[in-house]
Write a structure and sequence with these properties.
This protein is an alpha+beta fold. It folds into two domains: 2-109, DotD protein (Phage tail protein beta-alpha-beta fold, 3-Layer(bab) Sandwich); 114-185, Phage tail protein beta-alpha-beta fold (3-Layer(bab) Sandwich), CATH 3.55.50. The chain has helices spanning 2-19, 49-57, 83-93, 124-135, 159-169, and strands at 26-32, 39-48, 63-67, 73-81, 96-100, 104-109, 114-123, 140-142, 149-158, 172-177, 180-185. The relative contact order is 0.11.
């Protein structure tokens, strides 16, 4: 009975604070007793996404990696969900998508373009031209010292992650500017 009262109080507070312009942020995550899979309850109002994810990560079987630039806030009420389902619902509430890998969950901006590339022993300039087209990079400069070939198989990988992976694999560096990406040979 006490648990229902606390949950009702949290839901009521969520409703009130979501309508108040200067309300403080807060969140509450409660493990539920169940004989089946582990279930959680979440109530959050303008809570920093990073704080919610730090707490949720303790309930997951792998780490959570954030692949976006700005802190986001979450307002959400979930009565029952497994940790995986709760992560997906929190991501959707924050305008993100979840990419599940063998060792982690990667949360990325849903509006970020993705990279699909399948090349074997391709010249770095050809690879970077394909990256430029698929990722919507307006201008790219590739320094004359940049050389090499690479083999990559990406299917729907977020562009920033794909670019970092390609550059690191080929031992290259980059200098981002507004509307421009400069690809450089790695410094010795």
């Amino acid at each position: 009975m006490r648990s229902r009262f606390l949950w009702f109080s949290a839901a009521l507070l969520l409703l009130i604070t979501s309508q108040a312009p200067a309300a403080e942020s807060w969140f509450q995550m409660i493990p539920l007793k169940s004989e089946g899979p582990r279930l959680l309850r979440l109530a959050a109002s303008r809570a920093p996404l990073s704080r919610v994810l730090v707490r949720l990560e303790r309930e997951l079987d792998r780490r959570v990696v954030l692949d976006f630039d700005t802190e986001r806030q979450v307002t959400l009420l979930v009565k029952r969900a497994t940790p995986d389902e709760l992560l997906r619902r929190v991501a959707v509430a924050a305008g993100l998508t979840v990419l599940k890998t063998n060792s982690s969950y990667i949360l990325r901006d849903a509006s970020e373009p993705t990279l699909t590339i399948d090349v074997k022993d391709a010249d770095v300039r050809l690879i970077m031209r394909e990256v430029k087209e698929q990722c919507g990079i307006k201008n790219m400069i590739i320094d004359p010292e940049v050389q090499g070939t690479g083999t990559f198989l990406f299917d729907g990988v977020p562009c920033r992650l794909g670019i970092r992976t390609i550059l690191a694999s080929l031992g290259l560096g980059s200098e981002p500017y507004p509307d421009l990406l400069r690809v450089t040979a790695a410094n010795p």
